[in-house]
Fold each of these.
Amino acid sequence: QVQLVESGGGLVQPGGSLRLSCAASGFTLDYYAIGWFRQAPGKEREGVSCISSSDGSTYYADSVKGRFTISRDNAKNTVYLQMNSLKPEDTAVYYCAAGSCYSDFNYWGQGTQVTVSS
């Protein structure tokens, strides 16, 4: 069964850090780009970051550039999103998805909640 599972979310104070993980089962992540998305209450889902499958190119939304880092460990079939200097406006449910950074994403995880609050 093809599955993506996010973990690592939680409650953190402004300025803090979290590392999200996206673990795949039932397929190999090597052949897919992995994107991170987020959706805050009452807002549309937005793309946060993406890492390509071919050369590991990375892409970031302007709102997270310099604070978030995406990486992949193909041996562990896992992609990470390191989030530093977190702000209250980063509060959202974060999802990972497998597909292409330039078009569609085929598989989606269930999401993990990130709350940034004092």
Note: The first strand starts at residue 3 and ends at 7.
Amino acid sequence: QVQFVESGGGLVQPGGSLRLSCVASGFAFSTYAMTWYRQAPGKERELVAAISSRADSTSYADSVKGRFTISRDNAKNTVYLQMNSVKPEDTAVYYCNAARVPKFYWGQGTQVTVSS
């Protein structure tokens, strides 16, 4: 069955860095686009960053552009989100998502808290 193991979340001070990882199994990872979403308390889930199946295209929300980097290693079935210069407003649960229409799979989420 489809499984995700997300890791790397935690408490970080403003201006610090974190790297999130999402290890996938149970589907053809290398054929799926991968996306990181986040959801803050009381807010809707929003797209943070996306990467194509072959990593030849990426896109970012304006709020994270220049600070976050999405990457993937298809040999390891893993997608990453490098988060630099984090801000308190980056506090949220971060989810990885795999998409190859019409199929969509979600990870369980990892909490990121930015606070001094």
Note: The two ends are 40 Å apart (CA to CA).
